[in-house]
Amino acid sequence: MTPIALTIAGSDSGGGAGIQADLKAFSALGVYGASVITAVTAQNTRAVTAVEGISTEVIAAQIAAVLDDLAVSAVKIGMLATPEIIETVARGLEPFDGPVVLDPVMVAKSGDALLEEDAVETLKAALLPRATVLTPNLPEAARLLGQSEASTVDEMRAQGRALVRLGAETVLMKGGHGAGDVCTDLLVDAEKVRAELTAPRLDTQNTHGTGCTLSSSIAAGLAKGLKLTDAVTEAHSYLQGAIRAADDLTIGSGHGPVHHFYEAWS
């Protein structure tokens, strides 16, 4: 069987994040990618200048069309924008019984908002209980919990477990927004830290799409049949390579993308 992963997310016209990043990561990791577009953004490496949501009817139709015909093994969820879109996606995934990677996309790398304020509670109620793994960065985890951002590994662990109590099966707390020379990610479940992944903080501004790329890489691993901890470990390693190679690309004048195909391009 050909491994197939489905991304449900927004489109990035600059190509570095969202649906475009997800499909690149799927392909780089040997997985066929299907997609459901939830919103169209006018976006480049500097800013998001416009956002328009896709109608809930068309989103529902996209999900139904893909699941009706393709043997999807894993789903990644990214930008959802509004409460209505979140509820539509939750209903559309009811027939799907495989793993779901939920990336609670709230703000673009440029600082522009991608999730309406009143959508946070809907996200928590409708999709957190469906998540095999939730992948928030530190600001997203804090916003979901109504707390201050974690600043230590102990605080990251505590917030990860608090998010598990809200319904997610596991939580990957991403430490890229933290301080210090080393970034630490924690994969947490209700009982323990399943994995602690560290990497040196790299000196580059070309980190557009890192969150999308990591979550879709995890979905790719799950689609290939990897256990969750192995999928997270593989995704972490792949993303670090994509960040290290990001400066080999010359894309735009702001936050450029990571290099999804660093292993394939000469």
Verbal overview:
The chain is of the alpha/beta class and 266 residues long. It has a domain at 4-138 and 208-248: 3-Layer(aba) Sandwich (UDP-N-acetylmuramoyl-L-alanine:D-glutamate ligase), CATH 3.40.1190. Helices cover 35% and strands 21% of the residues. The protein has helices spanning 18-28, 56-69, 83-92, 120-126, 138-145, 153-165, 210-223, 228-244; strands at residues 4-12, 32-43, 48-53, 74-77, 100-102, 133-134, 170-173, 182-188, 193-200. Strands 3-2-1-4-5-6-7-8-9 form a nine-stranded mixed sheet. Helix 2 (56-69) runs parallel beside helix 3 and helix 3 (83-92) packs parallel to helix 4 (120-126). The radius of gyration is 17 Å and the shape is globular.
Could you give the count of β-strands? Answer: 9
User: Total number of helical segments?
Assistant: 8
Order of helices and strands: EHEEHEHEHEHHEEEHH
**Average of the residue pLDDT scores:** 94
Q: Report the span from N to C terminus.
A: 30 Å
Report the uncertain regions.
none
- In helices, the fraction of residues equals 25-40%
The strand order across the widest sheet is: 3-2-1-4-5-6-7-8-9
CATH fold category name of the domain at 4-138 and 208-248: UDP-N-acetylmuramoyl-L-alanine:D-glutamate ligase
DSSP strand content: 15-25%
Q: Outline, from the CA principal axes?
A: globular
* CATH architecture call of the domain at 4-138 and 208-248: 3-Layer(aba) Sandwich
Note the main sheet: 9 strands, mixed
- Computed structural class: alpha/beta
* CATH domain class of the domain at 4-138 and 208-248: Alpha Beta
Radius of gyration, in angstroms, nearest whole number: 17 Å
Question: Mind telling me the CATH superfamily name of the domain at 4-138 and 208-248?
Answer: Ribokinase
